[in-house]
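Dear colleague,

Thank you for sharing your sequence with our group. We've completed the structure prediction you requested, and as agreed, I am returning the results in plain text so they can be pasted directly into your records. Please verify that the sequence below matches your submission; if there's any discrepancy, let me know and we will rerun it promptly.
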Amino acid sequence: MPFSGNCSPFDSSTLNALSDVGSVYGLFKTDLPFRPDHYTCLFVGQTNELRKRMLEHYSNPPIIGITHFFAEAIATEEQRKQREKELICEFNPTGNNTSAAGHNDPREVRSVFNSY
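Please find the predicted C-alpha cells below.
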C-alpha cells in the first residue's frame, strides 16, 4: 500500500514547519518534464523526530535528486519499522538498496495532487 500522507516539497521552509513526531517517510523525485504528477521513490526511512530527521536529510541528503517527500505519522517504533519494511519492499528505493548501483528497479507513485 503506497503512502497515505500528502506530497510536500522538499525545501527548508516546508521542513521547518514539520512537527517532531514519530513517522515513516519517503523521499521522492518528480518525473519531469514528461510526467509532472508522477514521483519516483529514492529513499524510505522511519524516525521518532520527523522535523529533525528531514532537516538532517536536507543538509546531508542520503541520495541526490530529492524534490518531494511523503510522511505518515506512526506512534510506536515497532509499527514504524514494520511500515518502513513494507514500503521498501513495495518501492525498492535506490537509496535503500545496498547492492551495486544500477541493479534495482525504483517504483513510481502517482500523486493525486498537481505538481508545483
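Summary note from our side: Helices lie at 12-16, 50-59, 77-91.

Kind regards,
the structure core
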